[in-house]
Design goal:
By secondary structure, the chain is of the alpha/beta class. It has helices at residues 35-43, 67-80, 93-103, 110-121, 125-139, 172-198, 216-224, 267-272, 278-282, 297-310, 331-340, 355-367, 382-391, 412-415, 442-445, and strands at 15-22, 47-55, 84-87, 106-108, 204-210, 241-247, 251-257, 285-291, 318-323, 345-346, 370-378, 393-400, 403-411, 423-428, 432-437. The chain contains 15 helices and 15 strands. The longest helix is centred in the middle third of the chain and has 27 residues, at 172-198. Helix 1 (35-43) packs across helix 4, helix 4 runs antiparallel to helix 5 (125-139) and helix 5 (125-139) packs antiparallel against helix 6. Strands 6-7-5-8-9-10 form a six-stranded mixed β-sheet, sandwiched between helices. Strands 12-13-11-14-15 form a five-stranded antiparallel β-sheet. It has a four-stranded parallel β-sheet with strand order 2-1-3-4, sandwiched between helices. Helix 3 links the parallel strand 3 (84-87) and strand 4 (106-108).
């Protein structure tokens, strides 16, 4: 049987059947197996007209579905006049080809849908590079069955974005050349981002992480008064944004919003977005934002930790934030989460509830690395004035003739860096610990 012609099919707004094959040993609510996939394809602009699920320990190596379910899928396609089938699984190139031959319908897997949404959401130069690289790595092994219609690389499920139609007539050699070029450009971007993050050593850094649509951007706006884009859809934010946040009893910190995670995130996409997540890797504290109203919140928490470990982010200093308390209808779900995560903070970023408690919790966590210090210098040392105003919380100032003394709370790591001339630093915790005669270096005080 002839394979369906993708170049003659505009999949956007097409009728689609959703399919999921899951292991019966998984603790899943069967009624919700396809809920997340439905949200993904609707974000991509596809009309859902039918659903099909199958519980089996291992997928069929040829068609992923068992023979009986495959026949049921064919009947459902005919009955609903569907021209698209979307799997909530990752399919091998051979499985996708065999399914298309069997059903005479375009087959799309979960990875392709997610890549499509990222392609349609990417706005910045860095995000577009990352998405294009992930798309090419995904589609390269699928070139054999796509040789005459490579415009699918343009964006998959109707996004109309990506490497573009120029890839239609390319071959593996040209694709490999483009992949190498993208990887080189992303290394340059990553190096610049590392330098940017390193330049912020003097300020405490906090990074928001969490499942997609958990309310991270809304929380960032509520805490910083910024206007980061917010939308009730999956992957509304792809680019890292950083804003200044005044933390009570601590001073100013830098708060970064990052891309949301999701279950079964394509490996190529995770690899491509490593540079974007540099903020999370270098943060002093991670705020793990959770949609407390979601019935699978605990599963989403586990997913986020899995992705963080995959990209090499330490998960030791994490504060769990149970968000969307205004949307909670079953308080018992929150009670269970609180039992499992007793140090979590309850907030509603939408209504502004619990933000003071969150600020105090963050100050306490970050404050563990702070010390009380008394810094004496000459009244003409304007660079030290500016340095302390930016990097410390000044609690008192005294002038004596040509000298000035500052009482402040400052990150312990900075006290050892104030070496030079004409500055005396005395460090205290509950009692005096150390005294040193040091001065602010020109490069840090400027």
């Amino acid at each position: 049987m002839a394979e369906p012609r993708r170049d003659e099919l505009n999949v956007r707004h097409q009728k689609a059947i959703l399919v999921s094959v899951y292991n019966p040993s998984e603790e899943r609510d069967k009624a919700r197996v396809l809920e997340e996939l439905k949200g993904l394809v609707q974000t991509a602009g596809v009309e859902v007209v039918g659903e099909l699920t199958q519980a089996r320990p291992t997928p069929d190596p040829a068609t992923f579905l068992g023979r009986g379910k495959l026949e049921e899928l064919k009947q459902l396609i005919a009955a609903r006049d569907a021209r698209l089938v979307v799997f909530d699984n990752h399919l091998s190139p051979a499985q996708g080809k065999r399914l298309e031959e069997e059903t005479q319908t375009l087959i799309v897997d979960r990875s392709e849908v997610i890549l499509d949404i990222f392609a349609s959401t990417a706005r910045t130069y860095e995000a577009r590079l990352q998405v294009e690289l992930a798309q090419l790595l995904y589609f390269r092994p699928r070139l054999k069955r796509m040789w005459t219609h490579l415009e699918r690389i343009e964006g998959g499920v109707g996004a109309g974005r990506g490497p573009g139609e120029k890839q239609i007539e390319t071959d593996r050699r040209l694709i490999d050349k483009r992949i190498a070029e993208l990887q080189r450009k992303l290394k340059e971007v990553e190096a610049r981002r590392r330098r940017t993050v390193a330049s912020r050593r003097g300020m405490s850094t906090v990074s928001l992480v969490g499942y997609t649509n958990a309310g991270k951007s809304t929380l960032m706006n509520a805490l910083t008064g910024s206007d980061v884009y917010v939308a009730d859809k999956l992957f509304a934010t792809l680019d890292t944004r950083t804003r200044k946040w005044h933390v009570p009893q601590l001073g100013d910190a830098l708060l970064s919003d990052t891309v949301g995670f999701i279950r079964k995130l394509p490996h190529h996409l995770v690899a491509s977005f490593r540079s974007t997540l540099e903020e999370a890797r270098q943060a002093d504290l991670l705020l793990h934002v959770v949609d407390a109203s979601h019935p699978e919140a605990e599963r989403q928490i586990d997913t986020v930790y899995e992705v963080l470990r995959e990209i090499g982010v330490e998960t030791k200093n994490v504060l769990l934030v149970l968000n969307k308390m205004d949307a909670v209808t079953d308080r018992s779900l929150v009670d269970v989460l609180r039992i499992r995560h007793p140090d979590s903070i309850l907030v509603s970023a939408f209504r502004g509830d619990g933000l003071d408690a969150l600020g105090h919790a963050v100050a306490e966590r970050l404050g563990r690395g702070f010390v009380n210090a008394r810094i004496e210098t000459g009244v003409g040392n304007g660079r030290m004035f500016a340095y302390l105003a930016e990097h410390a919380e000044i609690t008192g100032t005294e002038y004596h003739d040509s000298r000035v003394t500052f009482d402040c709370r400052i990150p312990r790591r900075l006290t050892g860096e104030l070496d030079g001339n004409d500055v005396h630093v005395t460090v205290f915790d509950s009692q005096p610990l150390a005294t040193a005669a040091v001065a602010a270096p020109e490069r840090r005080a400027s």
